[in-house]
Amino acid sequence: MKIDGISYRSIWLDDDGWAVRIIDQTKLPWSLDILRIATVDEMAVAISTMQVRGAPLIGASAAYGLCLALRVDASTDAMERDAAMLAATRPTAVNLKWAIDRMLERLRNTRVEERVATAYAEAAAIADEDVAQNEAIGRHGLELIRAAQKPGQRVNILTHCNAGWIATVDWGTALAPIYMAFNEGIDVHVWVDETRPRNQGASLTAWELGSHGVPHTVIADNAGGHLMQHGDVDLVIVGTDRVTRGGDVANKIGTYLKALAAHDNGIPFWVALPSTTIDWTITDGVREIPIEERSAAEVTRMTGQTADGSLATIQVTPPGSGAANPAFDVTPARLVTGMITERGRCAASPEGLLSLFPERA
């Protein structure tokens, strides 16, 4: 994607060919800060503090993190230790474990002296495959937006959190069809949930869409149901951090409520994901998907830009009030209209997913 006419991926190798460059997403939308990551510990911090975030991007970042670790010590014991440390940084997004497992499967059968070069090649392959998968998701989702067009009317799409190009290596998942529709000249408009408590919608999705020129409006998280009741939403498209083999969907907290509202109002609720986000080992999302509990400070404090242009973090709750901060919720498959994957669209069911991925039967 492009920022001020310059093409970017969300992660890439530095000019030295081994360090990793990332966009610090904690600084958006106020500034575009490019960080140089040179050690596995720095990458672990970047993942855990959400300088990089989004399930596909976390996986690619962890893969490159393991590359950095191997530059220091390519022994098997060190490799397994560093891989476990990276895998523990974020528990909900399955792409993280998937990427680490893929790297280890490749590297365990590689001679120690060849591991660094092999690791960089495999991490690059993971990144390139993510871009190709997301572009395919965009094409399959574009058909839904075309179908939602009505003569002389704008297509209104509601999304939650950020599932755009900065949540992946490029294109995004839920936003990929929107970018393609806009590029095609379709009159499309996006309702952007603010997505408390970290405001990934208000800060990241709005920044992305604005950078690309896509018409959008930021709304309070609780406004989506109202808009649906009044016919102002044609379809909902969200991303996901983990999908069960039965079609349950773990996504940013608040997604479940949007799915309930969409179901009540007969509005299609689609989930866009690469197949790397499917956890084929579990069937019950509510009981089996681990839900990350993040710091209460994310709820009790907010950071924004003041009138003079400086940034400030303020307390928004009374002193002494506690806060809970589950980062994700699970939307049962019965509320999901369907999945948009790199292989096409399918029902949110075991049969639907296996129809696209029969090798998983």
UniProtKB/TrEMBL annotation:
PANTHER family: METHYLTHIORIBOSE-1-PHOSPHATE ISOMERASE
UniProt-annotated binding residues for substrate: R53, G54, A55, R90, Q200, N251, K252
NCBIfam families: eIF-2B_rel, PRK05720.1, salvage_mtnA
Catalytic residue list: D241
UniProt-listed Enzyme Commission number(s): 5.3.1.23
Functional summary from the UniProt entry: Catalyzes the interconversion of methylthioribose-1-phosphate (MTR-1-P) into methylthioribulose-1-phosphate (MTRu-1-P). Also catalyzes the interconversion of 5-deoxyribose 1-phosphate and 5-deoxyribulose 1-phosphate. Part of a bifunctional DHAP-shunt salvage pathway for SAM by-products.
Originating organism: Acidisoma silvae
Keywords assigned by UniProt, alphabetized: Amino-acid biosynthesis, Isomerase, Methionine biosynthesis
InterPro entries, sorted: IF-2B-related, IF-M1Pi, IF_2B-like_C, Initiation_fac_2B_a/b/d, M1Pi_N, NagB/RpiA_transferase-like
Marked site positions, Transition state stabilizer: C161
Gene3D superfamilies (alphabetical): translation initiation factor eif-2b, domain 1, Translation initiation factor eif-2b, domain 2
Principal EC category: isomerase
Pfam family membership, one: IF-2B
Protein name: Methylthioribose-1-phosphate isomerase
Family: Belongs to the EIF-2B alpha/beta/delta subunits family. MtnA subfamily.
Catalyses which reaction(s): 5-(methylsulfanyl)-alpha-D-ribose 1-phosphate = 5-(methylsulfanyl)-D-ribulose 1-phosphate; 5-deoxy-alpha-D-ribose 1-phosphate = 5-deoxy-D-ribulose 1-phosphate
An individual GO BP term: L-methionine salvage from methylthioadenosine
Pathway annotation from the record: Amino-acid biosynthesis; L-methionine biosynthesis via salvage pathway; L-methionine from S-methyl-5-thio-alpha-D-ribose 1-phosphate: step 1/6
HAMAP family with a match to the protein in the record: Salvage_MtnA
GO molecular function terms listed in the Swiss-Prot or TrEMBL record: S-methyl-5-thioribose-1-phosphate isomerase activity
